[in-house]
């Protein structure tokens, strides 16, 4: 049995194009969300929102992505349209993780967005732990008020990520990625 530290060191994303059926079960999803709401969070604001998007929802969100593209770029080419259309339905399951911050005297918005990011990471990591592949993406639709509105989010909300989840397909690379040397980012501050 590996430790959590070892599993985090070995964590890596799987490109959505390598994610196939089956996706997680409802019971697995429920376990993952139970872990997601256990992230550190200041002020009991609970600003996270998790939208589960499958099948019909993915088809509908594809249309929303295309409408959004065409609203911004009416002359968008077929390739660009196809790419947007494909975006939400590349894997069996899509989870939209959003932050819905509210004004609070002690908890600035950045902290509320950070905790939603933590929840997104926990969701992705739990799926890895369960043996699924997952990848966290954003892209233009994450910052579109039209997309937010279609998902029932306010313009002041933030989509922190679209997490694609599925079974790693046979073509998914198994090579362990090279990671940066942590020493480059770590120093000791002594105040001297
Ligand atoms: C907030 C956020 C947004 C991201 N958006 C994208 C994206 O739109 N497209 C993409 O290819 N990767 C995106 N990534 C990076 C991937 O999730 C992934 O971390 C990266 O491909 C490196 O792979 P690894 O997780 O195995 O190190 C994003 C990561 C974060 C944290």
TrEMBL record:
Domain of life of the organism encoding this protein: Bacteria
UniProt key word Isomerase: no
Assigned keywords, A-Z: Flavoprotein, FMN, NAD, NADP, Oxidoreductase
GO molecular function: oxidoreductase activity
Pfam families: Nitroreductase (PF00881)
Region span, Disordered: 167-192
Domain (Nitroreductase): residue spans on this chain: 11-166
Cofactor: FMN
Residues the entry annotates as binding FMN: 11-13, 42, 136-138
Cofactor binding description: Binds 1 FMN per subunit.
Record EC number: 1.-.-.-
Stored InterPro entries: NAD(P)H_nitroreductase, Nitroreductase, Nitroreductase-like, YdjA-like
Family per record: Belongs to the nitroreductase family.
Name of this protein: Putative NAD(P)H nitroreductase
Organism: Roseospira goensis
Phylogenetic lineage: Bacteria, Pseudomonadati, Pseudomonadota, Alphaproteobacteria, Rhodospirillales
